[in-house]
Amino acid sequence: MAMQRTPLLMSRLVDRGATLAPDAEIVTATADGTRRQTLATTRDRAHGLAHALAAAGIRPGDRVGTFMWNGSRHLEAYHATAGMGAVLHTLNIRLSAADLEYIIGHAEDRLIIADADTLALLGTLAGRIPCVERVVVAVEPGFEDWSTDVADAIDYEDFIADQPRRYAWPELDETAPLGLCYTSGTTGNPKGVEYEHRSQYLHTMAQCMTDSMGLSATDTLLGIVPMFHAMGWGLPWSALMLGCKQVMPHRFMNPERLVALMASERVTVSAGVPTIWQGVKAFVEANPDAYDLSALSRVTCGGSAPPPSLIRWFNEALGVEMIQGWGMTETSPLATLSRRHMKHKHVGLSLDEQFDNVAKAGLLMPGLELDIFDEDFNRLPHDGETVGEILVRGPWICSEYYRNPQPDRFHDGWLLTGDVGKIDPEEYLVIADRSKDLVKSGGEWISSVDLENHIVALDGVAQACVVAQPHPKWDERPVALVVLDADAAVDAAGILAHCATQFAKWQLPDDILFVDSIPLTSTGKMDKKIVRGELDAEGYVLPDLRLVGQEGAT
After folding, report:
1. Dist CA 368 CA 199 (whole Å)
2. Which H/E stretch holds residue 436?
3. What is the distance between the alpha carbons of residues 270 and 53, in angstroms, rounded to a whole number?
4. Out of 1-10, 177-186, 290-299, which region has the weakest mean confidence (pLDDT)?
5. Neighbouring residues of 206: CB distance < 8 A, sequence distance ≥ 6
6. Rounded to the nearest 5 degrees, what angle is found at the Cα of 458, between the Cα atoms of 491 and 471?
7. How far is 174 from 352, CA to CA, in rounded Å?
8. How confident is the prediction for the chain on average, in pLDDT?
9. Which residues are part of the catalytic machinery?
10. What is the DSSP string of 229-241?
11. Residue 333 in contact with residue 327, Cβ under 8 Å?
């Protein structure tokens, strides 16, 4: 008996939640509270937006940019473009004007939907993005008096007013483009990753598996990870399909507001980068009885590895499971995931053993292949000791960059991730570092991630960033930037002594620099490119920053 050959289209998923759970809420944070609408209303408005886009000349395959925070109108744009066959190009609102000009022009966005409070940055591109024919402005309280010279502009509500609330989603090829995200690369222009309907359909299914993030229609999801970053890690698609209640923080990303939203909306699951969870930890520790977080059961952490001490704190202080995921824009992004129990035999593990597992990047998601290779593309053993470059392939893995193939990033169907790591006998991936962030000293490699995690485990340390510093004798030496908690009694000697309990002398940082903050990338990761740029080109810390030194490798 033959099965039906139904194309895997996101239009078959995005209406499902509103059909089954029409009264589920979409909650958007505002300056003075929240704005609420049902999932049925969100669906109807998305269909109206699709009609408005079509009336504006948008056809399947055309790129529609969004320049928006996480909010209900951004979700409507996800829903509408997926259904009608347009390509959603989520623009990173934290990029420079030069990068934005390049990305918009390279993608040839025809229309941009923007939050009114982002118009100041978008306005710097006036006259520089001629491909954009129209700007649709989503207005929140306090930004009613908006204006822009970028292109012909209209209020979002006026744009969708009087449009029909049902759009007949077209039949498309399942390999038709769905979304477009650009990486914030460290060298050269950003590179575009085009997601297909098929790839995101399969990614959505995998993300909702019990042994994955375990999302359920009964969950209340606070999506902190920006919807402009790797399609919000795919969470908007999954939540639309399931019919979850969704809470969206918009531009209100400070720890207190996030914790308040978690408490008031009874959030059960959330997702963000380590800097977000470190901020939540610091706020809760300073205000232990301010908010009731008893509904929160798990948080997902990605973008970079969370310190093991942070994973343990969430469990011990809040009873919350921290789930670690590894991936990148090119992997849609979920590739591996680690939870406290990932195998049947893990049920009897001690807490320490469970935390050891979560500190790893995790086990491979079903449907993907992943391995470590040497520089000649020979597979390396899974012994937990041998380190190699991580390569991955599968149905939601990028095969080339949009209008910029870059064949050196791909080999025999594999994506060269740029990460290096090892695979242990249990098949857990352990990330050693980004290849560009490893420190090579005297011919030996030092992991900046391992040093950072160990330093952050010291009481009184809020953040640590380790980078390579050029050295005339040893090629490179590690330097650590450290942010302390308020009133912490920690000095450089104490940090070095703490590191010496786990690392050899030649692996210890040559310099400890105490700073007020560490620069972040547009996606909330520590921006090591900027940190390295603050070091003297000749290989010595700038004199006004040098606080402590020690001899290099011996």
Report:
1. 12
2. none
3. 31
4. 177-186
5. 212, 334, 365, 366, 367, 396
6. 60
7. 45
8. 91
9. 183, 330, 440, 445
10. SGGGGGHHHHHHH
11. yes
